[in-house]
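Request from the bench team (R.T.):
"We need a structural guess for the complex before ordering more fe (ii) ion. Sequence and SMILES attached. Just send the tokens back."

Command: build protein-fe (ii) ion structure.
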Amino acid sequence: MALTFKPIASCRDSQPFAECCGIDLSTELSSEDINTLKVGLLKHGLLLFREQSALTPKQEVAFNEAFGWHDPHQNEFLFGFGAPSTEHRVSGGAQMPAFPQVSVLGNVMLEDYYGLQNLQLSPVLGFTFSAWHADGLHDMHAGMPELTTMYNPVGWQTDSGGETYFTSGVMAMERMDPDIADELRCCVAVYMRSPNDEFPDESRRIDSGPSYMVDDGTRRIGFGLNPQDASAGLREFQLTHEHAVGGGQHRCVRRHPVTGQESLYVTPGKVVYLLDAKSGDIRHDIEQTVDILSQALLPSVTSDVRYEHQWREGDFVAWLNTLVLHSASDPAGIGGKRLMHRVRLSTPKRAPASSV
Ligand SMILES: [Fe+2]
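Reply to R.T.: structure attached below.
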């Protein structure tokens, strides 16, 4: 059967994402297949592959390396990628000892799973905390991952919940108010340092993911006391410019070097302020930044517009972080067991990816 793409039914009118049919990713991919998949990823931003029942961790890594976007010299797979502290590995998850590129996420106790033994997985973050992002944006300065893949292995079907939300950053540029789009084209996002373990005042440290978000995950109203419990309330905490010292920076709108498409490329929950891209002066301060980013993203992320992927056993989803934003749903909605694999490899480190 030939490799084909078709719209994903539940979001066919609102997102460019596609289901890819006629390919078994557990077999060796031909260079022709890889080229077709690469064109499909660049065109659609996200590809869904159903019934990939026999995929091994080695093959997941091979898929991520097939397109030439990764850094072949990467040998550390800490996430956040640029984290100065080794404490921050995989939030609530683990890396497979034999394949550290593959993170295992979920809520189950693993007695012996690909070398992970007696390990309790714990889902963290989600829609209320952290919300919309592209992988690596807020905690890396360079080498941000072009591609992320997630896989729901057979035998690990969640009863309910646990959806991953996606929206096209390209279409977000078209959906937002044109004046806001013009404004963001002039702006550089400045992120809070993540993690900021060395922040001198302990009460002002921010864990890597506790921004408390409302308005469909677009607007930060504070920092949660407990990132696993939305009802736990907010910390008394005032974000200041100081929290952005040492944080990442990049343009809010990115033009993809291959497709030429403009994409909204920002993680609103972690931005402290916006700079003028030409002068380097502050163009929008902390409060204003929260509002403008929320206004930019909101038309693209409401439940009628976003794609809510409900995971089935054997689902493999691959997306380009440069063209697509995503969010976990709230872990409190997960019914039953959940176990997922995730791979995201750094791109070769160059100058900060700040050019439009
Ligand atoms: Fe992510």
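Two things stood out. The CA atoms of residues 188 and 251 lie 4 Å apart. Residues 169-301 form one domain.
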